[in-house]
Specification:
- This protein has six helices and 25 strands.
- An eight-stranded antiparallel β-sheet has the order 5-2-3-4-16-15-14-9. The chain has an eight-stranded antiparallel β-sheet with strand order 13-10-11-12-24-23-22-17.
- The longest helix has 13 residues.
């Protein structure tokens, strides 16, 4: 196979993150070249990237060769494989050989043959995924929490993440009805892989595939029923509005002052939010002006890290914050959008 180094390295770098570091199937620790695609598989998801000029090729690029390909000089790369599964990579005056494996051993997830499909623009899909990703639990033993809920219902396509301490919900208009629980690892890869243009999503009960002109991402789906998250988003009596950047900057400064896991105290009264974070080595305070006066005074505590991570995913100038009481969650809402998040409180002394 003869191909330009830039194209090969670019496509290889996009999908190599799927290659498992540890596996009982050594053949998966490489990328398959087959029928015009580069293919990586970790048995949870398979990613295929189109590779021009490789339609008649079939061999495996071993993981040890990835860095070499990335560091080759620009120009043509010549890759050949011997009958004994030795792969030779040549570029300019550079030549190296690797032992590889037979491509017939490489498992590939096949396309979803039955089920439903929808099409959504990549920018819209990725923007909503990025907003809720921080709230998806990284704990793999809890399959439902360790997934993003992609749910079509009531004229909306809902994107939801929940880990027991924070809940994030974004939505776009869509006419249909289904519910997919997409594993966190798949969402993370979709965010980083660089999708563009229209994305066709085909799905059935066990799996889904995201298809663009250049990429195909196949994933298994998590079994189970998602939480009734919409009932948690209700109107709360204590409401105000705060500058997103002022709250973000204040929380960032507070966290800089301590490496401890300390709760942040919110003291809201009239037109002010007094923030304080106290640890063994710090006693930080800052006051922020509110855009609207609070109906009544309130003191409540939150995990400082969760508040910081939540405010980061908003992109409005101002964010609405609402409370039901000192032991009730905080509801945060975008000023000019449909994104919402809930942060559970913590006990403060």
């Amino acid at each position: 196979m003869k191909i330009q180094k830039t194209e090969l390295a670019q496509k290889l770098n996009k999908i190599k993150g799927v290659v498992p570091k540890k596996t009982t199937m050594p053949v998966l620790q490489g990328v398959l070249v087959k029928e015009g695609y580069l293919i990586a598989n970790n048995m949870e998801m398979t990613v295929k990237a189109k590779l021009e000029g490789a339609e008649d090729e079939c061999f495996i690029i071993p993981e040890r060769a990835f860095d070499l390909v990335s560091n080759l000089p620009d120009g043509e790369v010549d890759i050949s494989v011997s009958a004994k599964n030795t792969i030779t990579i040549k570029a300019d005056k550079i030549k190296n050989k690797y032992q590889t494996m037979a491509p017939a051993q490489f498992p590939i997830i096949t396309e979803q043959e039955e089920g439903s499909e929808l099409t959504i623009e990549a920018d819209m899909l990725l923007e909503s995924m990025k907003r809720v990703f921080f709230a998806i639990s990284p704990r793999e033993y809890n399959g439902v929490m360790a997934s993003m809920c992609l749910q079509a219902d009531g004229g909306w396509l809902n994107f939801v993440g929940l880990d027991g301490h924070v809940l994030a919900w974004d939505k776009v208009e869509y006419d249909g009805k289904f519910e997919l629980l997409i594993p966190r690892n798949t969402v993370e890869k979709l965010k980083s892989i660089g999708l563009s243009g229209a994305v066709k999503i085909k799905h059935n009960k066990s799996g889904a595939v995201f298809i663009t002109e250049e990429m195909e991402i196949y994933t298994r789906l998590v079994n189970g029923t998602y939480f009734n998250y919409q009932t948690m988003f209700r109107e709360l009596p204590l409401h105000t509005v705060v500058s997103r950047m002022k709250l973000l900057d204040a929380m960032t400064r507070a966290k800089i002052c301590t490496e401890e896991k300390c709760p942040v105290r919110f003291e809201l009264e009239r037109g002010f939010l007094n923030l304080s974070l106290k640890g063994k080595a710090t006693d930080y305070t800052e006051t922020i002006d509110l855009q609207e006066e609070m109906p009544e005074a309130l003191t409540i505590g939150f995990d400082a890290r969760l508040v910081l991570e939540t405010i980061k995913v908003f992109d409005d100038d101002n964010v609405g914050i609402s409370f039901g009481g000192p032991k009730m969650p905080m509801l945060m809402e975008a000023e000019d959008g449909d994104f919402k998040a809930i942060v559970l409180p913590v006990v403060i002394k």
